[in-house]
Amino acid sequence: MEATQGTNAGVLKVEMRLLLVEDDPRVARWVAKGLREQSYAVDVVSDGETALSQALVNPYDAVILDVMIPGRDGLEVCRELRASGSRIPMLMLTARDAVEDRITGLDTGADDYLVKPFAFGELLARLRALLRRGQEIYPTTITVGDLVIDTRGQRAWRGGRAVALTTKEYGLLEYLARNAGRVVGREEISEHVWDESFDPFSNLIEVYINRLRRKVDGPGVTQLIHTRRGAGYTLATFALADSEVTGPENPDMAQTGARRRRIQRR
Length: 266
Hints:
Helix content: 25-40%
Oligomer: single chain
Number of domains: 2
Shape: elongated
Radius of gyration: 20 Å
Largest sheet: 5 strands, antiparallel
Strand order of the largest sheet: 1-7-8-9-10
Distance between the termini: 45 Å
Structural class: alpha/beta
């Protein structure tokens, strides 16, 4: 497989799924909208109990945690997560700007501390820094065959031709590229590219895979997106064995199958 990652001095790993804990609806909508526009999947909760239960059962890549939330406050949530052994990066948000408050938050187990009001660009930069710490680092350019992905600019080219992608299409393509050569299943894709509102019985992943195939694997080029029957999808320059490969899914057939499953569950 000819899969390489650029050697740019600036490197970045774009993690996919975040938990945002914020009880102010206006702030929560603003932050979540901005993060989703950056291809993050975001789950939003507004109280400490729900935040704790969600963070303990879901594979989040980072938590953005407001201190002043109903029920268990952000400090207690952070403390309990660390006591459980969780090493998930946590960015604390608060209106308290005293040095003592920042020290308390960091000593509780937060990795960084951002005082309200803040610029969204600063939150994004701090989040990227958290995701780099102690984790595998990916360059700003990922190359698989003649497919080139600019993770910082969220753009892609195939054979030098720009590929026009929606935010979700880009998020799915980048996740496949970061795992090039490895088969990733539906559950893994849904956990990292979609949020908790994803319906596991829907055919949404198949629909997006087909969209990517039409845009990335057009006529006259080597197929990069492969389906391994019963396992999932892989982005690779090599061809899988014939017995392991299925052709591009027919969206109409997939939708029919999804409708049948819904009828059977009734």
